[in-house]
Design brief:
66 residues; mainly alpha; 0% strand; rod-shaped
Length: 66
């Protein structure tokens, strides 16, 4: 008796179930591609008056601290 040909639908479903099982057990890490990346907070653009010329120190209202 010859073996039956593989049904691609069944192969795909079995592969997805196997991958899900490996992910749930922690063997395989699947990145969340839909997650939003956190926005960057801070830096010169995040200060009220900007930065001094060193691009590190935040200016006061008249940048007299630079």
């Amino acid at each position: 008796m010859s073996p039956k040909p593989l049904n691609m639908k069944n192969v795909l479903i079995a592969s997805l179930i196997g991958l899900l099982a490996l992910h749930l057990t922690g063997v395989v890490k699947i990145p969340n591609l839909l997650a939003k990346k956190p926005s960057k907070i801070g830096g010169c653009a995040g200060t009220q008056y900007g930065c001094c010329s060193d691009n590190v120190t935040a200016c006061d209202d008249s940048c007299s601290n630079c």
